[in-house]
Design brief:
Order of helices and strands: HHEEEE
CATH topology of the domain at 88-136 and 148-182: Pantoate--beta-alanine Ligase, Chain: A,domain 2
Radius of gyration: 46 Å
Number of helices: 2
Structural class: alpha+beta
CATH class of the domain at 88-136 and 148-182: Alpha Beta
Helix content: 25-40%
Largest sheet: 4 strands, antiparallel
């Protein structure tokens, strides 16, 4: 839609749809400026919308997207590490339980010493056996010449440690128990030589 022609015979350029102007008989320059300024703002607004996003808007959007993706990846990575760590501890506990049950059946643990073996390519274990020596106590009411005798059983402590390799370090899990073994020092006990390791 164009502008209406004034008495002075002046006309303004064609304007976008929905925008019109009227020029009165008053001085032309002041009215042209006052009417053209809003029209220019309308045209600039329409052009800006038609052109799309500015470079600054794109940079800010990419920065926010990068931060969100990075945070999500860290959470997922941390979850996977936690799951892997829990799985390693569960497997180590199962290995320790199996090794301890096997050690309790061996004669090697009836004497102080140390055993170490590899369970598989990922896990290895080390067991330290030590005898728990308790002082012999004279029962009350017995004469001073009474000599207490050794008990028929002795206590052997078994300290088992299972090791496995993580990505950057080595982790371990400890298991402890006490085994009752025949006491060679007890009266009438058969003398058994310590087994070879």
């Amino acid at each position: 839609m164009g502008c209406r022609r004034s008495r002075l015979g002046l006309s303004l350029p064609q304007l976008p749809l929905g925008v019109s102007c009227v020029v009165s008989v008053n001085p032309v320059n002041s009215y042209i400026k006052s009417y053209m300024a809003p029209v220019g703002r309308v045209i600039m607004r329409r052009n800006r919308k038609a052109n799309g996003f500015t470079l600054m808007e794109v940079v800010v959007a990419l920065a926010v997207l990068g931060i969100a993706v990075g945070a999500a990846m860290q959470l997922i990575s941390g979850s996977f590490k936690q799951i892997r760590s829990i799985g390693n501890h569960v497997t180590a506990a199962q290995v320790a339980d199996a090794v301890m049950n096997d050690l309790l059946l061996r004669d090697e643990v009836d004497h102080p010493g140390e055993l170490a073996e590899s369970y598989d390519e990922n896990y290895r274990w080390r067991a330290v056996m030590d005898e728990i020596v308790e002082p012999l106590v004279v029962p009350p009411g017995m004469p001073a010449s009474f000599t207490p005798q050794e008990p028929p059983l002795k206590k052997i402590s078994i300290d088992l440690t299972v090791y496995w390799r993580n990505r950057f370090s080595e982790s371990s899990l400890k298991l402890f128990t006490i085994k009752l073994a025949p006491n060679e020092r007890a009266p009438g006990a058969p003398v058994r030589p310590p087994p070879r390791r």
